[in-house]
Amino acid sequence: PSAMREVMVQAPNVGWDDIGGLDAAREKLREGVELPLKHPDAFRRMGIRAAKGFLLYGPPGTGKTLLAKAVAREAQANFIATKSSDLLSKWYGESEQQISRLFARARQVAPTVIFIDELDSLVPARGGGLGEPAVTERVVNTILAEMDGLEELQSVVVIGATNRPNLIDPALLRPGRFDELVYVSVPDEGGRRRILGIHVGKMPLADDVDLDVLARRTDRFTGADLEDLVRRAGLMALRDSLDAQTVTMAHFTHALEETRASVTPEMEREY
Ligand code: ATP
Q1: CB-defined site of ligand 1, < 6 Å
Q2: Domain AAA+ ATPase, which positions (predicted)?
Q3: Which of 64, 115, 206, 208, CA to CA, is 20 to 30 A from 109?
């Protein structure tokens, strides 16, 4: 029984407007991915190469997947999302084959953004991995060969994501590989305000709901935490009454008592 998986090509439905905060990361991806995919001629004329690989790193739930999808959509590129557990197989040679199929499919439907989540467990530095060292080494070599084989401006860009950048094999971080590091941080107050605004988009809010106050009271909350808070506030309203017409500030305050930031200051200091 082979574990080989179909490589799924998507047209992502997330754009820059769906992302709150993360201005610096957004700008870096716009310039590094969107521009070269949309205007390869301009890069050729200037005689400069475009980056092939980007590494998004930062705490979980901060919007790394969202950023990769949005840049693909804004660049009018196809999007192929995968993660280590999809690529790694216990069958001899299958992980390498799966990786090669991934890149082949990406070239076929280019322009393409390949997104590889959990990159640290796919290509961990020697000794740090979950897999057997020999498998890990072959997987690293396959990825390196595939990335080296991507010609300049061939319209395939690889975006990796990790919560633990220090576990990644340094060979992958050399120029021509994942040579652009993009920190995706926990949002500040302004970022939180914008993320809350996005997630209450479809919610009937009572007049007393003050998103500025909520943004102030959610220090260290990630985008995923804020989305969860909004959902819980909606549930609170329904718990009060299934006929509820609006979600009030009291529902939010109540929900806030039940949630907390998933990222601790210690975790943040690791980056
Ligand atoms: P992980 O490291 O766990 O894979 P991630 O950084 O890739 O997490 P996402 O999957 O992009 O995080 O985010 C999870 C969900 O949280 C998103 O689908 C979105 O609803 C919400 N979210 C996270 N960050 C943001 C943001 N900056 N703006 C709006 N929503 C966000």
Answers
A1: 19-22, 60-66, 117, 161, 163, 195, 198, 223-224, 227
A2: 50-188
A3: 64
Judge residue 87's burial from the number of C-beta atoms within 10 Å of its C-beta, 0-12 exposed, 13-18 middle, 19 or more buried. Answer: buried
The CA distance from 43 to 32, in Å, is 11
Residue 167 pLDDT grade (very low, low, confident, very high; cuts 50, 70, 90): confident
Tokens (6 digits) for 184: 């995706």
Query: How large is the ipTM?
Result: 0.96
CA distance 23 to 13: 20
- Residue 226 CA to ligand 1 center (angstroms) comes to 10
pLDDT (average), residues 242-247: 95
* Whether residue 245 has pLDDT greater than 90: yes
Q: What residues pair up with 144 in beta bridges, in sequence order? A: none
Query: Cα–Cα distance between 87 and 97 in angstroms, integer?
Result: 9
Query: 253 alpha carbon to ligand 1 midpoint, in Å?
Result: 23
Q: What angle do CA 190, 192, 193 make, to 5 degrees?
A: 65
Give the strands of the sheet with 112-117, arranged side by side. 78-83, 112-117, 156-162, 53-57, 178-183
Sort 231 into a burial class: Cβ within 10 Å, 0-12 / 13-18 / 19+.
middle
**Percent of the chain's residues with pLDDT above 70:** 93
Looking from the CA of residue 56, the nearest atom of ligand 1 is 6
Largest CA distance in the chain: 64
For residue 50, give the nearest of 67, 73, 32, 68 by alpha carbon.
Answer: 32
The confidence score (pLDDT) of residue 12 equals 86
Identify which has the larger pLDDT, 90 or 256: 256
- What distance in Å separates the CA atoms of residue 52 and residue 151, rounded to the nearest whole number? 9
- Within 13 Å of residue 221, how many CA atoms lie on the same side as its CB? 26
